[in-house]
C-alpha cells in the first residue's frame, strides 16, 4: 500500500487513484493528499472543526465590512410581503384609532413640491399639518394650565416647548411605527418630516373621530414625556431661582427670603458640604445642600419654588394614563366638547341650507 517518492513525483494520476482506493476501503480515515503525511485525523476528530479557508474568508469579509461601512437602511416597503393597506389597519388597531384611511394616507405621504401634478396633495398635506400643529398647541397649553395651575407663564411655555419639540415628536413617531408607513423621498426620514407627519395624523384623527379622540391621542402619547422629569430642573431651568422666589413672595405680600447656614461638614477637605435653609420671616421655606454656599442657596430656592408651584416630588403626580380621574377629564375635554358641538351644528346648518 505504500507508494514511493518516485511514483508520487512521476505519476500523479496513480497517486489520485490510490488515495481514492484507500478512502473507499476505509472511510473512517481521512487521508491527506500528501501520502507521506503522518498527521492523519479520523473523521470523528474532523467533525465540528471549521475548514481552513473559512477562517480566511470570514476575516476578509469582516475587513471588507469595516472598509465599506454598514449597508444603507432599506424601508420595509421593499420587502415582497409588504401590504400597505394591511399595515394601515394594523397601525390603527395597535393605537386604538378609528380614522379615515384616506386621511391617514394623506398624513403619511410627503408630496413632491417640484411637480405640478402634486399641487393638490401638497395643499392637503400642508392643511393637515398646520391644523394639527394648531390643535396640538392649544390642547397641550390647556392641559398644562389644568394640571399645573400655579405654574407661571414662563414655566408653562417651557413645558409646552419641551412636549412639542421637533426631536421629541420625531422620537415618538419613530417608535410608534411612522417611519415604516411614511412615504417620503429620502429614507430614513428626517426629524422634521416625522414631526410634520405626526401632527398631520393628529388632524386626521380630529377630522374623523372629533377633537376628543385627537385629545385622547395626545394625552396617551405626548403628555407621558413628563414622566420622570423635574420640571424646574430638567425642563424650565431658570437662571436665577432666587429672584423668582422673591417675586412670588412679593405677590403674596410675605417677607423676603433669608438664607441661613444651618450646618457644614468637611470644610478643609476636597469635598465640603454646606446646608443652607431659607426662611420668610419666621416661616421655614426649604433646605438644601451643596459643595458651596451659593450652590446650596440656589438649590434651596429651587426647592422652595417647587413647593410654591406644587411641582415637587412629594406633590401630586401630573395626571396621565390610569391616574386620570373623571373630574380632570371633564375639565380637560370641556372646551373640546364645546368645539365639537359647534362643528356639528355648523355642518348641520350647511346641510339644511343646501337642501331645496
Automatic annotation (TrEMBL):
<protein>
    <recommendedName>
        <fullName>Large ribosomal subunit protein mL44</fullName>
    </recommendedName>
</protein>
<feature type="domain" description="RNase III">
    <location>
        <begin position="95"/>
        <end position="183"/>
    </location>
</feature>
<feature type="domain" description="DRBM">
    <location>
        <begin position="240"/>
        <end position="310"/>
    </location>
</feature>
<comment type="similarity">
    <text>Belongs to the ribonuclease III family. Mitochondrion-specific ribosomal protein mL44 subfamily.</text>
</comment>
<keyword id="KW-0694">RNA-binding</keyword>
<dbReference type="InterPro" id="IPR055189">
    <property type="entry name" value="RM44_endonuclase"/>
</dbReference>
<keyword id="KW-0689">Ribosomal protein</keyword>
<dbReference type="InterPro" id="IPR036389">
    <property type="entry name" value="RNase_III_sf"/>
</dbReference>
<keyword id="KW-0687">Ribonucleoprotein</keyword>
<keyword id="KW-0809">Transit peptide</keyword>
<keyword id="KW-0496">Mitochondrion</keyword>
<dbReference type="Pfam" id="PF22892">
    <property type="entry name" value="DSRM_MRPL44"/>
</dbReference>
<dbReference type="InterPro" id="IPR014720">
    <property type="entry name" value="dsRBD_dom"/>
</dbReference>
<dbReference type="InterPro" id="IPR000999">
    <property type="entry name" value="RNase_III_dom"/>
</dbReference>
<dbReference type="InterPro" id="IPR044444">
    <property type="entry name" value="Ribosomal_mL44_DSRM_metazoa"/>
</dbReference>
<dbReference type="Pfam" id="PF22935">
    <property type="entry name" value="RM44_endonuclase"/>
</dbReference>
